[in-house]
Amino acid sequence: MENLLITILLTSIPILLAGLGELVTEKSGVLNLGVEGMMLCGAVAALGSVLIFGNPYIGILFGAIAGILISTVFSFFTITLMTNQVATGLGLTIFATALTGLIGEPFVGKTAASLPKLEIIFLSDIPYLGKILFSNDILVYFAIFLIFFIHFGFQNTKIGIIIRAVGDNHDSAHSIGYSVKLVRWISTSFGGMCAGMGGAYIPLALTPHWSEGMTAGKGWIALALVVFASWMPIRLLIGALIFGGITILQFVAQARGWDVPSQFLNMLPYLATILALALISFKLRHNNYAPACLGKHFLGNK
Amino acid sequence: MIEFTPRKIQSSFWAILSPIISIAITIFIGSLIFKILSYPVMESLYQVFVSPFSRPDRIADIFVKACPLIIIGLGLIFCFKANIWNIGAEGQFILGTLCAGSFALLFPETKTYTLLFSMFIIGFISGAIWASIPAILKVKLNVNEILVSLMLVYVAMLFIDFVVRGPLRDPMSFGFPLSKVYPDGAIISKVDFPFIGFLGQFHYGIFIILILCPLIWFFINKTLPGFQIKIFGSSTRASEFAGFNKNKITFYVLLVSGGLSGVAGVIEVSANMGRLQPEVSFGYGFTAIIVAFLGRLNPYGVVIAGIIIATAKLGADNAQMVLGIPKVVTGIFEGMLLFFLLAGETIQKYKISIRKDN
Lengths: 302, 358
Prior knowledge:
The complex is a heterodimer of chains A (302) and B (358). Chain A is mainly alpha-helical and 302 residues long.
């Protein structure tokens, strides 16, 4: 049971990290559909750097940098050149899937070192909970920290409120002197960094070898989770944990010897995403939490 | 600082020029990539863009490769014109193939083409049904169609994998995940050209484009529903004032696009494979998105775009065989091409000037 809960937590980390980043990006009014592609870049950069330097922490760093770099391509086209955000995000995923396939080819069949577990003294000795919550690798702690950081940041800090203002009404934010484009560039880069780290987590903690398109739709699920969480970081954690649970259901089923074809179990996360989106839309018919300027262009020369 | 001023009339000069410039920039950056990866640049470009034209049978194969891309792309025109983002054409393609293929396998020994005809209808309906899931959710609950249509791609891939490895597996396939071979009445035959004979894999299914393309052009440009789709996509508010039914447009564009993807699947498998296997598409549904954009959402443009992209795809196969360049580079080219095409749209919509800030 303990192990099961730990596995659920670990499986949800990539979606959680990518989702948190995308949440910040979307709060600033930018819809970046390239999360899947940015995660792949993070994954391949992390794996490659670990194979070269042998240190998994360097992997996190390179994953984050790769995420930021690829997100600037998106920012340049959508924010500076004002291209359609949906199509550009899609293009980013197509581009990054191929690019990482090319870069990752030499890594096929090689195994990367995993992130070490860091036990927090005293806390990790608490029966049951200690093992589950306080005996994890650094990115788990970071992801949990990020939830509260973003939640608090949007409620109580000036930067958080500026980002929200830019996302909800870019004309007003511009007229009181904030640079809409700069805020969006930074928020999108933050999203890229988180997606890169989320992607990095896959080879560094879950499956230590490269395969083309190894994120298998996790980026898209993260996008759906942001909607599901109504742009609230704490709800994102709940959503990510539910998805972690659904994803490992197939391993449980295999272990218990249930007679269900594996393909149907593999479908569950995708079907659950559709169901979750439908349920949340049903609930939010009258109250839409989406940032008001999400996906809209800002001309910036008024 | 760069300044964008909306143009009153969209520049038609740029509309034609931007796809050409986009291709040129993509080729330029592509050659830089070849250079960085230390492949011979001219030889690589020759293999990717020219070698597919080097023999008559190779030229014929360009049309074979372009066929599914064009048919799916023609369907996507409806969605993208209406600003509805169906990115799940891959799934609709797979489901159309699977349903029509299963139907064909129910009637072994059938020799008449009634079977093929029914498969087209079943392919269209099942592709449309698969697309109706995001359509209904969008219309009834305002669920994002992008995410739902994409999630259904993964579901469709896993489903055909299950069917081909399970219920429909040919017992004589020695453990390979393959269905039985389609009956004769379900096979689209190769074209036997007079005096020349067979040319590559060129098949009769390709001729459907000659009917579809003008038909769709006429529908979009000369009929009221086509006009409604265009207005709905360019200005939702205007179309609401005009009293157009928003839900109906959303629903039908997704259905038509899904249906055509299904038909594309039926043709592809009946002409080239003749049986079901776990991989029936090869990313056609995603590549077709780029084809639709490269063709500037014009049916004739989509045909040309499909041929261009198919050439590059076949060329990449040749480049892999001759020079060992990994085939995935085409994806990099496709992504870049889409970026530049979209940037071209900005130039078409806005006048760009550089203003000095004081």
